[in-house]
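WARN  no MSA supplied for this record, continuing single-sequence
INFO  ligand: threonylcarbamoyladenylate
INFO  echoing inputs
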Amino acid sequence: MQRVALAVIIHKGKLIVEHLREEIRPSFRGVPAVLPGGKVLDGELPEVALKREVKSDIGMDIEIVSCIAERAHPLIPESRISYFFCSVNTVNLTIGNKKKVKSAEWEDLPTAAVHMLTLFSRVFAFLVQQLYGNVLPPNVNVPELMWLSQDFERFGAKIREGELVAFPTETVYGLGAHAFDSFAVEKIFRAKNRPADNPLIVHVSSVEQLHEVAQTVPKLATSLFMHFSPGPLTVLLPKNDNLPSVVTAHSSLVGVRIPANLFALELLAAARVPIAAPSANKSGKPSATHHAHVINAFGSEVPHVVLGGPTTFGIESTVVLPKNEEQIVIMRQGAITKEELKTTFPTHEVLIAGEDDTNLRSSPGTKYKHYAPNGKLTVLPLNSKKKWRAHLLKVINENPHESVCILCSKEFATLIPKKVNRIILGSERDLSSIAASIFGALLECDAKRYSLVFAQSFPRKGLGRTIMERLTRAAAN
Ligand code: TXA
Ligand code: MG
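INFO  complex generated
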């Protein structure tokens, strides 16, 4: 029996396929294998087949580089692996200068051949999705393919062993650790450079699992979970004594939520323990809404990343405190709005801490500088289109030597002079599209080194209020 290992990396749109046992490659000839589309392949190298398939399907030429490990190394630029694909049985490999990369391995050649083809077609599906968005045939479900191809048991074991695993949720990516392992939790604080007085949210997979971390679940808290879970709502509950106090930054309350994301729930199921996880970004920087953001921010510091593509909401969960049975206090604004809470609980008082009632203290995390891009961000005043354009032209003219970018809705983008850079966040008619792209846009501003960024304002109601909270904090000095 011969062992085969294969790593696939996509960098800047190029597919880099790396055979770690190059000498076995000729053995693939003559091994009949079935392409996922049902086509039987006989005597053709998988990468040749892939190239041909890609060309005939969408007329795109792709470059596939095959080489042995040592030679692959120069192809992997410093901490710039933009995408990394691995299959069912994954192993960690050290390439070149101890760079950790993942690869897949199989026990025998016929299985390997079939798996390689499946793997290639998945990588291909993902690559096309990334580069061309909507050209994928409607029956190809990329998230499902990505979900099928990852080894959650292995990720779950890493959590139990006290290692950090980054994973997608429906809001933003989380940087997870075993909630009952204080050493593991401390690793999160170190990796993020997070102040020790900022508590972490604990993620569980079911209402039953809440009792592992919470001493009691009050009636109102149970109703909140029944209405909004799984989903982007974090509820503060009295903490169980055996949950390490480092998780809650010594608070007697623990924030708990059940994420509505297949990948996150799969990881929780495999880990079999609650997972403490803040957003997977360095403290103060925009939250990660795509696995590429996590890889860019942490590189080899966080080698285990569940690849889940873009997140749905793109903005964090709402943190609430069911204060007594009549009052819901919003401790941090988020994807679930005050209006939604009020509609669901019409007889309850719903208050935003620090805004509706300045005596109520909001979550510790809200006092820190957050989400800031490297360039200077200014939120433009809410205005009519005519006044907005005039204001914009004025600030652009005042800064002739800066590299300027405007973040705005597609409705306002038409008002911007052609030569000025802009990132369209979404449509004003669908504020969730704006919310979903804010963090990605701020990170793009860093990548493109814009020194001056101007963001459009949105009316402070519903999701617009959360969007404005994030933008104003990102703009704070
Ligand atoms: O959507 C989310 O909530 C994401 C995903 C990964 O679940 N997580 C997230 O975590 O945004 P983080 O650490 O970036 O923000 C958590 C916020 C902070 O403002 C923190 O102060 C607050 O929740 N928080 C957590 N536990 C708390 C507690 N026991 N009391 C008061 N505030 C708490
Ligand atoms: Mg955060």
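The chain has three domains: 2-135, 150-362, 376-475.
INFO  checksum written, moving to next record
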